[in-house]
Write a structure and sequence with these properties.
81% of the residues lie in helices and 0% in strands. The protein has 11 helices and no strands. Helix 1 packs antiparallel against helix 10, helix 2 (25-41) runs antiparallel to helix 9 and helix 5 (61-85) packs antiparallel against helix 10. The chain starts with a helix and ends with a helix. Mean pLDDT is 79; it is low at 88-100.
Length: 243
């Protein structure tokens, strides 16, 4: 379990660095400063932790499920950013149709702006865990000195690794694709960490064909509704362009 959590922490750190490499310089420096301040100011809570308590947290299924919910939300935001960034441009008649709805355009701009500045919240638990491990590794040293020293190292490391990523992966599209795949991996690791060797549903030996047919029927019905609704919107947009 500890190995799985360690892999998850490494993946989250790499995902944050990839996301920041796609952001503007202002967002990068603000995020670096927030991470450094978090590490420097969190030492009073870090010194209260113990290895036994951390192991108890990892073995607590309720806490792991709550953590998986936060992880899923974080992954969903980053996947939405990847999807929105790589979305194909709209056709001319679609642009005219969308431009008439000002509230929709405003909400879309706000949503894209939020996704652009969102660095990911999972990096803060990772930094807190790193701070706790560093304090355990350096007994007898002033806690505040360890915390602020680690904060400076984290800030420099973030800047350095960000430049290394941009040097190794100069293509923005490649970094975006890697961010997408990495967050899929984080989601899978989160599910595995939540299960923790147990299955939530017992296996069955028979198949309920009536339930299966009901699910297939619902899928077909809603697929047809979506298809005809899309055709109707497209035809109405073409009519607007023709006028």
């Amino acid at each position: 379990m500890q190995t799985l959590v360690l892999c998850l922490m490494v993946a989250v750190s790499l995902s944050t660095l990839l996301k920041l490499s796609l952001a503007t310089l202002r967002v990068r420096w603000i995020t670096f400063a927030l991470c450094a301040l978090f590490v420097g100011l969190a030492w009073p809570w870090a010194v209260e932790q113990s290895k036994t308590q951390i192991e108890a947290w990892l073995a607590n299924p309720d806490l792991m499920r709550d953590t998986a919910v936060v992880l899923s939300i974080d992954v969903a935001f980053l996947l939405a950013y990847c999807w929105g960034t790589t979305k194909a441009p709209a056709k001319p008649f679609q642009q005219i149709y969308v431009a008439q709805n000002r509230y929709s355009v405003l909400l879309r701009k706000l949503w894209r702006g939020l996704l652009a500045i969102y660095p990911g919240l999972l990096i803060f638990p990772v930094l807190f865990s790193l701070e706790v491990s560093t304090i355990f590794f350096l007994p007898g040293v002033d806690f505040a000195l360890v915390a602020w020293g680690l904060a400076a190292i984290v800030a420099v490391a973030f800047v350095g690794f960000g430049w290394v990523l941009e040097f190794l992966l100069p293509e923005r599209e490649l970094r975006l694709e890697l961010l997408f795949l990495l967050n899929l991996l984080i989601g899978i690791l989160g599910v595995i960490a939540t299960v923790n060797g147990r299955t939530a549903v017992e296996g069955v030996g028979n198949v309920d064909f009536l339930s299966l047919l009901a699910v297939v029927a619902l899928f077909v019905v809603f697929a047809l509704i979506g298809f005809f609704w899309s055709r109707r919107k497209t035809s109405s947009a073409n009519t607007r362009v023709g006028q």
